[in-house]
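If your schedule permits, I should be very grateful for your opinion on a structural question. I would ask you to consider whether the tokens describe a fold that such a sequence might reasonably adopt. Thank you for your consideration; the sequence and its tokens are set out here.
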Amino acid sequence: MKKIILFVALIVFGLSAFAQTMKVQSAYADMKNKRLAEAKKNIDAACEHESTKSDAKTWHYTGLIYAKLVEVSQTDQKLYKKQKIETPIPELAEISKQAIMKSMEIEKAAQTNEYTAANSNTLNYITIYQFDIALNTFNSGKYAESIPLFEDVVKGAVASRNKEVEMKSNFCIAMAYDATKQKDKAIEMYRQLVKQNTKEEAVYINLFIANKKANELDKAINVLKIGVKNLPSNYRLLGLLSGAYIETGNKVEADKTIATLKSISDTITENKPSVLVIIGDVLRDANNTEDAIAMYNKSLELKPVQTEANYGLGVLHFNSAVDLKEKADNLPFDATEQYDKLQKESKEKFSLAIPFFEKVLTSKPKDINTLNALKIIYSRLEMTEKYKQVSAVLDSLRQ
């Protein structure tokens, strides 16, 4: 009698397992026929049943169905509303991701790959969807909130082997650390990205600045060298590298990078004025005044309405004026004639800087650096009214 009961029990269990297997198939068929709510109901049941919850296929279809719900929510609002699903869409995406990754884990343990390609494609779609959410959070200024979102995206990107999304997410995490004053974490992320040969210009620039602030100029230069290697036509990185070489007195390498910048300026049209300004800045810092002025003027010929070249020329004359004044101040007390001569030349250089800085203010009336430079100039030249005007603007900006 017990054997008969046991036999019946086995039959019932077998029928139950078969029913759950059929639910997996039905769920897929429902999805294909746009009966998404029914597909979700059947696959949810299969995920909980003993006979199917350990099957890679079950989790593969779960990920696929939930990803389809996410997709339809973005592409066919009418169909999505018809399903009357109350689960938030980001939660649907996360369920899809977890299901796909579980399917991958089961297949890895079983050393099979029946669903590998399809799982990777589905996971990639969900990863990109979640990346967009994280990026929108970041762009809205919610930097701290975006960090765990991007970290979650990285997991999906690694699993789906989407290197681009992985790198972009890590870049955003680093920027978010920077924005939330977590400098050490930001620097560590930047270093990792440099080791991975990122194509993000800002990574090299930010790590260069961080190393320079730490008085590690050799490391700062190496970062830029890697950046130039990975982004050989990036004139901003080349400009910074040229300046760093000049700062360390490495004229040979500085001349090489300047030559590269000049070669770039000869072959481009769209950003040529900007490249010429960068070359002008480098030559100015190398005390090659005449060539620097020529580059700034060439930039202005191509793009008369701009702030960069005007600011560069203003700085050039301002620096010359400051140098002349320092020389005068360091003269012996009895060198009156030479002192007066240098002071006069200094004031002439300050006067030359004025129109260029004032042109900058026509486009950027609240530019702090320009306003501070003009305040010093107006003070030196005893231009009282203009000094008061600039001081008033600076005071209002500080409030």
